[in-house]
Amino acid sequence: MAATPESKVKDKVKKILKEYGAYYAMPVASGYGHAGIPDILACYKGQFLGIECKANGGKPTALQLSSLKQIDDAGGVSMVINETSIPYLVAVLDFLKGDKREH
């Protein structure tokens, strides 16, 4: 089975999180879970991250945006990542690591 464009983004995000030594989990969508939860929940250097992965051109749903806002409101970091915005994830992780260089 060929990988979808979104699954390729998820694989890249997971690879980067592993390289940084971040904890992450991918909640399984089911009828018993919380609707709109981000694709990847992570923790790095004490910071909670909610990461919604999209294929280029993909947009988060209203429920996903609501969940991302709740993460921000609770003091976490939320983001929508696609193929072209992967450098943003790296910049956030570098910042949290303490590497404050200009990106």
What is the element layout, followed by pairings?
Elements: H1 5-20, E1 23-25, E2 40-44, E3 47-53, H2 62-73, E4 77-81, H3 86-97
Parallel strand pairs: 3-4
Antiparallel strand pairs: 1-2, 2-3
Main attributes?
single chain; 103 residues; alpha+beta; 39% helix; 19% strand
Condensed summary:
With 103 residues, the chain is an alpha+beta fold. It has helices at residues 5-20, 62-73, 86-97, and strands at residues 23-25, 40-44, 47-53, 77-81.
Q: What is the overall shape?
A: globular
Strand order of the largest sheet: 1-2-3-4
Strand percent estimate: 15-25%
Helix/strand order, N-terminal first? HEEEHEH
Radius of gyration: 13 Å
Largest β-sheet summary: 4 strands, mixed
What distance separates the N and C termini? 36 Å
Helix fraction bin: 25-40%
The total of beta strands comes to 4
**Total helical elements:** 3
Mean pLDDT, to the nearest integer, reads 91
> pLDDT below 50 for ≥5 consecutive residues: which ranges?
none
Class derived from helix and strand content? alpha+beta
